[in-house]
Amino acid sequence: MKNIIISEKQLETLTNLVKQNVKEDDRQEDSMAKKQLFTIATLAYKMWESMDDNETLEDWEESKIAQCEQSIIAVVKNYMYDEFVDDSDIKDVGGMDKLSYDDLVIGK
């Protein structure tokens, strides 16, 4: 391939296009996560609704649900922490003494 000579203006235009495409890709990933969360919430609710109070599942099913619960809790805690830090005017958040994740109970 031969060398291609472009002006500074053309380089700036190309750089802006690349940055715009990266931002659009980020938005697509965000919307994918939101769609996945909706699917998880909807299916979990439908299953919860259809189960009897004393109904038991197979061991592997209970294991998968427990893993999913731990994964969702980890993501939500991290998301909430990021929101807390982003919204805070405090330079030094102070760690767990300001926000205790152990006090956060989800779904109980």
SSE arrangement:
Layout: H1 8-50, H2 59-87
What is the number of independent domains? 2
The chain-level mean pLDDT equals 76
Largest sheet: none
Helix count, DSSP H or I runs of 4 or more residues: 2
The number of strands is 0
The level of helicity is: 55-70%
Structural class: mainly alpha
Give the oligomeric state of the chains in this entry, treating copies of one chain as homo and distinct chains as hetero: single chain
Strand content: under 5%
How far apart lie the N and C ends? 62 Å
Element order: H for helix, E for strand: HH
Poorly predicted ranges (pLDDT <50, ≥5 residues)?
Answer: none
Shape: elongated
Using the CA coordinates, give the radius of gyration.
Answer: 23 Å
Could you explain the architecture of this structure?
The protein is mainly α. It has two domains: 1-51; 58-108. The protein is built from two helices and no strands. The longest helix has 43 residues, at 8-50. The chain is elongated and about 70 Å long.
Brief summary of the model shown:
By secondary structure, the protein is an all-alpha fold.
Keywords:
elongated; 2 helices; 108 residues; mainly alpha; 2 domains; single chain
